[in-house]
Design goal:
Distance between the termini of chain A: 47 Å
Radius of gyration of chain A: 23 Å
CATH architecture of the largest domain in chain C: Sandwich
Chains: A mainly alpha, B mainly alpha, C alpha+beta
Structural class of chain C: alpha+beta
CATH class of the largest domain in chain C: Mainly Beta
CATH superfamily of chain A: Cytochrome c oxidase, subunit III, four-helix bundle
Largest interface: B-C, 115 and 99 residues
Largest sheet of chain C: 5 strands, mixed
Order of helices and strands of chain C: HHHHEEHEEEEEEEEH
Radius of gyration of chain C: 27 Å
Number of strands of chain A: 2
CATH superfamily of the largest domain in chain C: Cupredoxins -  blue copper proteins
Structural class of chain A: mainly alpha
CATH topology of chain A: Four Helix Bundle (Hemerythrin (Met), subunit A)
Order of helices and strands of chain A: HHEEHHHH
Helix content of chain C: 25-40%
Helix content of chain A: over 70%
Shape of chain A: elongated
Strand order of the largest sheet of chain A: 1-2
CATH architecture of chain A: Up-down Bundle
Strand order of the largest sheet of chain C: 3-2-1-5-8
Shape of chain C: elongated
Number of strands of chain C: 10
Strand content of chain C: 15-25%
Number of helices of chain C: 6
CATH class of chain A: Mainly Alpha
Number of domains of chain C: 2
Oligomer: heterotrimer
Largest sheet of chain A: 2 strands, antiparallel
């Protein structure tokens, strides 16, 4: 463990300094950077998990907790279940599709990176921007999902459920909103990856970016399915 | 976040930046960021200390008119107490040991050229600095800063009508804490990735200095805890501004219905203390790691029970997440739950005791050099014992009936979380100043500073235990109303006088710090004859830490007084010891 | 320097310990059935922890002096990485001490909090608000009348402050006061409520403390064993008047209590 670490970090330093190192050297550089980025992503996801763990426990506690009715001095339950708009399931489908296209983009870009150091000496990716359509498609699907969520909010509001109407509607807006903000972060990362492609940044660094964005994206999809299950089955 | 890091990582080649802004303000260098954190905490600690001085003055001379500030009103006292607690806990005890010294020395001690994600590192500092500005701005808005205490229990903290300062001031307070959480999460991400991925060849986990272990475990605690506080803060903001009822049930303020219904004030307490208890360890673990290190260095002896120390810190970190309920014995939580929390809390005392025994074991049969960092490390052990010994009282719900929310609690956490951690920060400053600034600090001034601070803090905080036993409640701005408090006023007066002396002593430290930067004796590369990697490189370290090569590690961090060795210490990079074993 | 450190640490230890031993400042005199048990457990904890405190501090000071660097001629420091037997010994010892202490006190905690009040206990509803305590007795019907939050008006004091609904028949005989009267040697069933923010009902002499939380009605009990006036304090930060939110608990004989409550009932008619 320790010795590979060293080789890898030496590799990072060398690889950054010398553009035309050997193929082995740059493959090593790529895998070291990929590993570090993925490790960072896992750690970041732990923080995201903690946020949703606290909201889930707050949800369950708030749902089950009786509160004092001061008129009678007795404890009563005030939780009213929120009927979910069926439109949500269409949104879910869109997000699942976006995860699929994200995965295609990820595989494409790591192939390009591998091809990059096999064939070209300069390390840049010339016209090899085939991953672009998938990245673009993923962004569009992601934005459609967010637009869909916005429509769901509008529908709930039309039915008279606002943020503060009942506890279940507060939690609905909270969970969908916080998830939406996280997904927006993913879309920004996708835009950065697309920009990197357009600006002809080295294929390897773009591949690293696309790879971690993809895993982040899959996680957001998973998180959404979890939130939907919580809202649907623990009403 | 990690994903966006890499575009910038390409630019972060190991050549030093040349422009002043990139070098000193928006620097990506972990050493510069560490110093920035250090000065942020230094500013914060003097602000926090000043607030505490005003509180002590108000307690014994409630009607005194102060120059510029005038008379301190009872509600202002609560504002001072809230801001003192918040600033000290977040911007000093969390910021200095981890953000400051951890940032500077973790990469060097494990033999890395920088943190894993330098841009993220810079961002986490600036978000923290912004949080501090937002926190201070609460003083200057209409209604002033909040008065709900650093724990911010709703409904008091959730209803703008509940008191002065609970309007805009309280919003700024919550926003500042949320920003701080973001900064702390980014920082934790960096610390964990760096420790796991960037260790030099031969630097196995069990060869890491205990400081690195402490920073690593602290980062894990921060990662798990700050997300929860962030979530709770968002809920509180929604309750305050969007009319939701997460924490606020049906209540009236001064006869007026608030429109909230059904929320649970206890839910906030659970979320807050789920963060709040690990936060105690976030403050104290780096000091534990550092003092272990210093006791070994200056006793010229290997640390007693290195593995036991590591396992003790790991179990403190683990158990630290299962004891939050001991802050809530009197809150209306189920008494059965309270009993379970109390057993866990007593259990967490065990690894703390193990560490204390190991510290005593380390200096036992050593050859102690009484340098200023060593004095503060010994002071830390004394304070840790004194502050720790009151823990088993408070951990028992039966005794908590009497002691909860009294000065006994205030004395307990100030000694162990406040002063002991601050002693860790002082020790770190005296120890690493030569490496950071290239000069030694003045030893004479440091010794005076040590004895004034040690005796002074004991004189302030030990009497708090007596007050607490006599049922003196905390957060009381005037001692005139309850009759049984009248007899305790002389003790309060004594504490205020002690505070004056202690605070005066801190200016000696401040003077020494800046004076030594300019006029201190030039430091060599290894002035303390210590073994860890930061002492193998130049003073101050070059931009990439080791001047173009990456060190290879052969030894554990505490090889002192090895029989048959030519010197009484063997550097971690020295191959020599391979023959000795 | 080693000697100076020894003197300072030992002096701090001795002075701190002196005031604990001399009981210059101590727990207020207990006046409830639970006080003796709680105080006894406090003393047990305090003796055990006191021994650990003094021993550890003295050892620290002594080691600092004894193992100071005596210059180049002295022997080298001991080269030792620790001792597993010792580690295991002190781990087990502290575990037994700490967890044992906890279990010793569990029966007191159980009698205080696990069981509900006895059926013939005197019921008193305690309501906290910024910044006063009000006490309500159910009257001869044994039932508390309804209260309404929209009727709460702190400035009117008494019944108005807790929002008593006078149209409810059960509230006709409810007595609301600003001083808490209880009979001696009877178990008191306290029902804790708060109108606005969290307060905490603390009677030091009764060894009784419990938060009053809005949205909850918390039942808790204690048994006063000596007549007299005892101060009630608020122990949870509740706003700018927190320091002046206090009251009086008046423990009287059963006859006096009956007389007092009858007089209050007569006033209401």
């Amino acid at each position: 463990m320790a010795s590979t670490t060293t080789n890898a970090s030496v590799g990072t330093a060398e690889g950054l300094r010398i553009g035309n190192g050997s193929t082995d050297q740059r493959a090593l550089d790529f895998s070291a950077r990929l590993r570090r980025a993925r490790l960072g992503l896992i750690v970041a996801l732990v923080a995201v998990v903690m946020i949703f763990v606290s909201y889930s426990s707050a949800y369950v506690v708030r749902q089950g907790l009786p509160t004092l009715d001061p008129r009678t001095g007795t404890l009563v339950h005030d939780w009213l279940p929120l009927p979910l708009p069926s439109f949500l399931f269409l949104n879910t489908l869109v997000l699942l599709l976006s995860s699929l296209s994200m995965e295609l983009a990820r595989r494409q870009s790591s192939r390009e990176a591998a091809a990059g150091w096999m064939t070209s000496g300069s390390g840049t990716s010339e016209e090899r921007t085939d991953g672009m359509p998938w990245l673009g498609l993923t962004s569009i699907l992601g934005l459609s999902f967010l637009a869909g969520q916005w429509l769901v909010w509008r529908e709930l509001a039309a039915r008279g459920f606002y943020v503060a109407t009942v506890p279940s509607s507060s939690f609905f807006y909270l969970l969908t909103g916080v998830h939406g903000v996280h997904l927006l972060g993913g879309i920004l990362a996708l835009l950065a990856a697309s920009a990197a492609a357009l600006l002809r940044r080295p294929a390897a660094s773009r591949a690293v970016l696309v790879d971690v964005t993809a895993w982040y994206w899959h996680f957001m999809t998973f998180l959404w399915v979890y939130i939907l299950c919580l809202l649907e089955f623990a009403r | 976040m990690a994903t966006r890091e890499f575009a910038a990582h390409d630019a972060h080649v190991h050549a030093a930046p040349t422009s002043w802004i990139r070098k000193y303000v928006f620097s990506l260098d972990h050493k510069v960021i560490g110093i920035q954190y250090f000065f942020l905490a230094l500013t914060a600690v003097f602000v926090g200390m000043f607030l505490s001085l005003l509180m002590r003055i108000h307690l014994i001379w409630p009607a005194a008119a102060l120059p510029l500030l005038g008379e301190i009103k009872p509600e202002t006292y609560l504002t001072l107490l809230t801001m003192h607690g918040t600033i000290m806990v977040f911007f000093v005890l969390t910021t200095a040991p981890q953000g400051g010294f951890g940032n500077y020395f973790l990469p060097i001690q494990i033999g890395a050229p920088d943190m894993a994600f330098p841009v993220l590192n810079m961002l986490s500092f600036w978000v923290t600095a912004l949080a501090f500005v937002v926190m201070l701005s609460a003083f200057f808005v209409v209604g002033g800063a909040p008065l709900h205490g650093w724990t911010g229990y709703p409904p008091l903290s959730a209803l703008p009508a509940a008191g002065p300062g609970e309007a805009l001031g309280a919003d700024l307070w919550v926003i500042s804490i949320a920003l701080f959480c973001l900064g702390a999460l980014m920082s934790a991400l960096n610390f964990i990735t760096t420790t796991l991925d960037m260790r030099a060849k031969g630097m196995t986990l069990m060869r890491m200095p205990l400081t690195c272990w402490a920073w690593f475990i602290t980062a894990i605690l921060g990662l798990l805890a700050f997300g929860v506080l962030l979530s709770a803060g968002i809920l509180l903001l929604l309750d305050r501004n969007a009319g939701t009822s997460f924490f606020v049930p049906l209540v009236t303020i001064n006869g007026q219905l608030t429109g909230h219904r059904g929320g649970s004030p206890l839910l906030w307490q659970h979320l807050f203390w789920f963060f709040g208890h690990p936060e105690v360890y976030i403050a104290i673990l780096p000091a534990m790691g550092l003092c272990s290190q210093l006791l070994s260095v200056f006793s010229r002896k290997p640390i007693f029970g290195y593995k036991a120390m590591v396992y003790a810190m790991l179990s403190i970190g683990f158990l630290g997440f299962m004891v939050w309920g001991h802050h809530m014995f009197m809150s209306g939580m189920s008494p059965y739950t309270a009993f379970a929390f109390s057993v866990m809390t007593m259990a967490i005392g065990v690894p703390s005791a193990i560490k204390t025994f190991n510290w005593l074991g380390t200096i036992w049969k050593g050859r102690i050099r009484f340098t200023s960092p060593m004095l503060f490390a010994l002071g830390f052990v004394s304070l840790f014992i004194s502050g720790g010994i009151s823990g088993p009282f408070l951990a028992q719900p039966v005794l908590d009936i009497q002691l909860h929310d009294t000065y006994f609690v205030v004395g307990h956490f100030h000694l162990i979380m406040g002063v002991a951690s601050i002693f860790g920060i002082f020790a770190a400053t005296y120890y690493w100043f030569p490496k950071m600034f290239g000069r030694m600090m003045n030893e004479g001034m440091a010794r005076w500073h040590f004895f004034i601070t040690l005796i002074g803090t004991y004189a302030i905080f030990m009497p708090m235990h007596y007050l607490g036993m006599a049922a003196h409640l905390r957060r009381y701005s005037q001692l005139t109303e309850l009759k049984y408090l009248h007899g305790l006023v002389p003790l309060q007066e004594f504490m205020t006088y002690a505070a004056f002396v202690t605070i005066a002593g801190q200016f000696l430290f401040l003077f020494n710090l800046f004076w030594s930067m300019k006029f201190g004796e030039k430091a060599t590369d290894n002035p303390w004859e210590a073994t860890t990697l930061e002492w193998t490189t130049a003073t101050p370290p070059p931009h990439d830490n080791f001047g173009g090569h990456i060190p290879v590690v052969y030894n554990g961090p505490y090889e002192y007084s090895v029989p048959g060795a030519p010197r009484d210490f063997i550097m971690q990079t020295d191959p020599a010891i391979l023959k000795a074993h | 320097m080693g000697l100076v450190l020894l003197v300072v640490i030992w002096l701090i230890t001795f002075i701190s310990a002196y005031f604990f031993l001399a009981k210059t400042w101590w727990l207020p005199v207990g006046a409830s059935a639970a006080a003796a048990g709680i105080d006894h457990h406090f003393s047990t904890t305090y003796i055990l922890m006191g021994i650990v405190f003094v021993a550890a501090q003295l050892a620290l000071g002594f080691f600092a002096w004894k193992y100071r660097d005596r210059g180049a001629t002295a022997r080298q420091a001991l080269y030792s990485h620790g001792h597993n037997g010792l580690e295991i010994t002190w781990t087990v010892l502290t575990l037994v001490l700490f967890v044992g202490l906890n279990f010793m006190s569990s029966s007191i905690w159980a009698s205080e909090r696990f069981r509900p009040a006895v059926s013939d206990a005197v019921e008193v509803e305690v309501t906290g608000m910024q910044f006063a305590w009000y006490f309500r007795y159910p009257g001869p019907d044994g039932k508390f009348g309804a209260t309404k939050p929209e009727l709460e008006d702190p400035s009117s004091g008494g019944e108005g402050a807790i929002g008593l609904d006078t149209s409810d028949p059960a509230s006709k005989d409810d007595v609301v006061t600003g001083t808490m009267y209880v009979p001696v040697n009877r178990e008191i069933d306290v029902i804790l409520r708060a109108e606005d923010v969290i307060h905490s009902f603390f009677v030091p002499a009764m060894r009784f403390k419990q938060d009053a939380v809005p949205g909850l009605a918390i039942h808790m009990h204690f048994t006063p064993i000596a007549t007299g006036d005892y101060e009630i304090a608020c122990s949870q930060l509740c706003g700018l008047g927190h320091y002046k939110m206090h009251g009086i608990l008046r423990v009287v004989s059963q006859e006096e209590f009956d007389k007092w409550i009858a007089a209050r009932e007569a006033e209401k008619q």
